[in-house]
Specification:
- The chain contains nine helices and five strands, in the order βαβαβαβαβααααα.
- It is an alpha/beta fold and 203 residues long.
- The chain is elongated.
- Helix 2 packs parallel to helix 3, helix 5 packs antiparallel against helix 6 and helix 8 packs across helix 9.
Length: 203
Amino acid sequence: MVNILVVDDERHVRNLIKKILEENGYDVVTVATGEEALVELRKARFDLLILDLKLPGISGTELLRRMKQEGIDIPILVVTAITNANPIVEAMKYGAMDYLSKPFPAQDLLKKVEELLNKDQISFEKLTRLVEEKLEQNKPIIAEKLARQLFAIRPDAEAHYIYAMVMEKLGNRELAHKYLKACLSIDPEHKKALKEIIKYEES
């Protein structure tokens, strides 16, 4: 299930975005401030952030700056009524990937959300294939560099599993075991990791 965090200080906008997205099968968490958003981002993994730039307390741009500092890297869609281009350009500098002007039709929101989620998925899958290819070619050092990029896109169970396989190929069984355990702590049902970890638990 895709998890989306919506940050907007206007309750009716939050509720509207939540309704549109939930009707299309997404899981949605909504908050009103940048401070609340940071709390949510630190405790859970989200696949997309939908962010208003004009917020009480810390601004949307400041939230993006802090996310960058903390290494929280997820696709970001700015949804704003601001007509001045400068804040939007600034937000893009800090990692926002696209923006949508308020008010907006539901289909425009859904289109942007789908585009950003698919962009993330394609790059993750492409990198995964490249890592596997380099491992087959016995080029584990290149594979390790590529595997690190997976974490920048989506540090999920699969990224941890792939990194474990790279570490195993490099002969670092201790780190491989560590990443397999991390994979299973995120997804206890990860079949490939469950199969692999037996080798470590038995030795």
